[in-house]
Amino acid sequence: MFRSYLSLVGSGDESVESQDRKTKNRAAGTGPLAFILAIVGLVLVFLVCTGFLGNTENNSLTLIGEMNGDLEWIENSPLSVSLDDESLKRHHTDKYKFNDLPSIFVVRRGFPFILNVTIPEVLDKSHLVAVKFTPSMGSLHIAANATVLSVASGESSSTFRLKLHIAPDGAVGVYNLGICLANHPTSKTLRCFKINTPLAVLFNPYCAEDEVHLEDEGTPVLLPEYIENEYGDIWRGSLTEFQGSRWYYAQFDEYVFHSVLYFLRNFSGDWTSPVQVSRHMAQILEACDDHGFPPGCNPEGILVGRWEGDYNDFPDAQEPQTWMGSDAIYRKFWQSGYKRVRYGQCWVFGGILNSALRSLGFAARQICAFNCASEPPRANGFWQHVINKYASLKSKNDNATRWPHHTNPHTVS
C-alpha cells in the first residue's frame, strides 16, 4: 500500500524500474528509524499508563467518600470552575443566563453533570480529593455520587473533570460547593477551596425516576411547551366574549430565577417534595395590602392584588391590565429591594406563579375558566373549584366565591 501511494503521487515521466529502485532504497533506510520510533512509542505508553504523563483516567486522584479530617478553608479561592456545556444541554438548563446578577450553576436532580476544575498546583496520584456540599438555604441535605474522570497536570497547575450525580429524589435548592484536597492518604487536614459560583438543583421532569416526570414519548411536545416555552396565551373576558393575551413567562430570566430562589429561603418543609415546594410558592407570592388583606397573604410577597378602586394611589403602581409578562414584575421587585409590586389580579398572579414553577423545574401551565366558583377551604386545605357551563352558578354553600372568569396555574406532571 505504501508503494502504491508513492506511485500515485510520483512523476508520470519516471519508469517503473526507476520507481522500484527508489522505493527499495527508501525502505532500506527506514528500518533503523522504525525501530527507534517503536522504542519511543513503548516508553510513552509506559509513562501514560503509570500516571507520569498526560491525561490519566481515575487513577491520578483518589476520591474521598467521607471527610473525617480537619477542614482548612483557603481564602480567596484560586479555583477556576465551569459547568460542562454538554451537561447544560443534557439538563435543559442552557437557557439560564446571568448578566446583571451573580452567576449560578443550574442543574436538575437525577442526571449526572460534569465540572471542569483548574487549580494552580500540580497534583499527582498521592493526592486525595473530596467534594463538599454546603446548603445556602434551609436545612438541606443532599446525596450525591462523585467520580474523577480525568486529570491533566502541567508545570504549575492541574485540571480535572469531576462527574457528580444527585439522586432523582434529592433536595432541590441552592448549595455552595467546595473542593477539598489532601496531600497524602494519611493527612489529617484537608485544604478546601470554595467554588465561588453556587449550585442550584431543580426538579427534573425529563427524568423517569423523578416524581415530577412528564411522560412525553415519541417526538417531545409537552415538555417543550410546559417547561421550555417562555410565552403563552392567558384568556380573559366572559363565557361569550373572551380573548387571549400574550404573556411572557420568562422562567429563565435572571431576575425571575433569583427572586424565586429568594422566596425559597424561608421554606421549612420537605425540600425533596414537589407537592410541598409548589404549595409554598403558591402561598408566598401574593403580598398583603396595607390592611393585611386578603387572609393568608404574605406580608413579604411580591404582588399586591386589587379588584376595584384607585389603581394610581402609589407613584409606581400599575393597573393589572398593563402587565404583559412576569419579567417586569420580578425585575421591579428585585431592583426595589424586595418591595411589593402593585397591582395584580388572578391572571397576573397565575402568570408569575407559572413562571416560578417552570423556573424550579415543574411542568406547569395556566388554566383559565369562565363561570366558576370556589368554596372556602376545608379541613384538608384544598379549595374545591366548580366549573359550570351556564351563566348562573348555584352552590350549596352561601359563602362560596363566584367569578365570571378566573385563572389558576396547574402542574401537569
Largest sheet: 7 strands, mixed
The portion of residues forming beta strands comes to 25-35%
Tally of helical segments: 8
End-to-end C-alpha gap: 61 Å
Q: What is the assigned CATH homologous superfamily of the largest domain?
A: Transglutaminase-like
How many structurally independent domains?
Answer: 2
Please give the CATH class of the largest domain.
Answer: Alpha Beta
Which whole number gives the mean pLDDT? 80
Note poorly predicted spans.
1-24, 45-59, 378-396
Class by alpha and beta content? alpha/beta
Instruction: Please tell me the CATH architecture of the largest domain by its name.
Output: Alpha-Beta Complex
Q: Helicity range of the residues?
A: 10-25%
Q: If you compute it from the alpha carbons, what radius of gyration comes out, rounded to the nearest whole angstrom?
A: 31 Å
Q: How do the SSEs run, as a string of H and E?
A: HHEEEHEEEEEEEEHEEHHEEHEHEEE
Fold-level CATH name of the largest domain = Coagulation Factor XIII, Chain A, domain 2
What's the shape?
Answer: elongated
- The strand count comes to 19
Fold and architecture overview:
The longest helix has 34 residues, at 16-49. Helix 5 (254-264) crosses helix 7 (326-335) and helix 7 packs across helix 8. This protein has 413 residues and is α/β, with parallel strands linked by helices. The protein folds into 2 domains: 62-202, Sandwich (Immunoglobulin-like), CATH 2.60.40; 222-411, Coagulation Factor XIII, Chain A, domain 2 (Alpha-Beta Complex), CATH 3.90.260.10. Strand 7 (144-153) and strand 8 form a beta hairpin. Residues 1-24, 45-59 and 378-396 have low confidence and may be disordered. It has helices spanning 2-9, 16-49, 85-91, 222-228, 254-264, 274-284, 326-335, 346-360; strands spanning 62-63, 70-74, 80-83, 105-108, 112-119, 128-135, 144-153, 158-166, 173-182, 189-194, 199-202, 231-237, 242-248, 286-287, 303-305, 341-344, 364-374, 385-387, 401-411. The strands form 5 sheets. Strands 1, 2, 4, 6, 9, 10 and 11 form a 7-stranded mixed sheet that branches. It is elongated and about 90 Å long.
